[in-house]
Every structure is written in C-alpha cells, then in structure tokens.
Amino acid sequence: MPTIKILPHPEYCPQGAEISAPAGTSICEALLEHHVNIEHACEMSAACTTCHVVVRQGFSSLNASDETEDDLLDRAWGLEPQSRLSCQAILAQADVTIEIPKYSINHAKENH
Asked: Helix (H) and strand (E) counts for the chain?
C-alpha cells in the first residue's frame, strides 16, 4: 500500500503526516479519510482547483492528467510543473510526497 507524505501546512496538517491508502485511491480521498481536511469545493468532480497539491516526489507514478484537469490547473494559485488536482491524482504502488499550497482561489472555506 503506497504512503503519502504530507509536508507541513499551517492549517491542514501543521506537523506534516504520513498516511497509507490503497492503490487506485485519489490523493484527495486518502487525505480526507485520514482527517486532513483539504478543500474540495466541487465535491471531487474536477470543477474547481481548491484541492490543488504539488507532488514533490512520486509524480510520475500517478495517472496522467487529462485536458480538463490541465485547463483547471491553469487557474490554480501557485501552479508548478508538478501540480495536480488531488481529486484526480490516483495513487499507484509508489509512495508520494505532496505539498498543499498556502492559498487557493476559494474566497470562503467550505466545511465538508
């Protein structure tokens, strides 16, 4: 089972964390299942960018992004070459390290 290392984020995961999730799970689902309450304003339907993460290690092990995700990422705050929407990034067998950006384009926080 792959491990997701989450780098420290002042709001969502202040000390950082390491969690495990089965291959085939999206990064967003794994985070939420382990009480890392990342924003996901569109309920993981690839219609916003609030669940944007930067994959610091293991990027190539994830499924390829599609055109819809790539278009949405163009609007994400802090976009980097290894940015993904966590709701669309599906784990394979390899471990990944992610960073949750400091900001999102969401002006109001959702409580899911």
From this structure: 2, 5
What pTM, to 2 d.p., does this model score?
0.91
Sheet containing 96-99: order of strands: 17-20, 3-6, 96-99, 52-57, 83-85
Q: What is the mean pLDDT of the segment spanning 65-85?
A: 94
Which of 86, 105, 104, 91 has its CA nearest to residue 11? 104
Residue 106: predicted pLDDT = 58
Q: Going along 1-112, which residue ranges are E strands?
A: 3-6, 17-20, 52-57, 83-85, 96-99
Beta bridge partners of residue 57, listed in sequence order: 97
> How many CA atoms does the CB half-sphere of 10 hold within 13 Å?
3
Distance in angstroms (rounded) separating the CA atoms of residues 106 and 101: 12
The letter for the amino acid at 1 is: M
pLDDT at 43: 87
